[in-house]
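We close this part of the discussion by returning to an individual protein. In the encoding step, the backbone of a single protein was reduced to a row of integers, each denoting a local shape. The sequence in question and its structure tokens are set out directly beneath this paragraph.
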Amino acid sequence: MTQAQAHPLALCSSNEALARLKAGNARFLAGQARFPTVQKDILSDLAKGQHPFATILGCCDSRVPPELVFDASFGELFVIRVAGNVIDAAVAGSLQYAWVHLGTPLLVVLGHDNCGAVEAAIAEKFRGVRHPSRIDVLVDDIEPALDNVDPTLPPDALLDAAVEANVRRTLRRIVDSPEWATHSAGIDRQAVGAVYELATGVVRFLA
């Protein structure tokens, strides 16, 4: 099997991109974040174009800002945020844009513990709770991820298991899509799942 080539627009390999995210989270945890401010000359350069090294599909929870979590500056991450880090047509289009026009070598589906969207899906699937119409559409997209989650687990353990299952399902839907196959064939590109821990700031990358 031949080694995958980098996308022409990619400025680093997928492994280098993943290492940068892990190092950024380590700086964030150590209180050594590099980007408290951004210089005007940097903003001026970014106005000419963007070259993010990773795409992050994350939850829109206000407590999980990917740029801060990974100590990344302007222009370094292409971030897509939606409650429950689910995928729909708009998200899929945004992902395809990142692959085709930005050449990002790494995709991270980033969930987080105590996710309200996943908690709502648990309540509907296992306790019959109903939600307002638009929230219900979102919840319906998460529920299939819970099919193999044990509903008899203690509440905290159930939510943790459901959050991870939801990340894995979204990740699987992406990498099994024809778009991923088309735009990643022969290219150094990888997709990984991760869960952010609200109380500690740790990002746990899933095997």
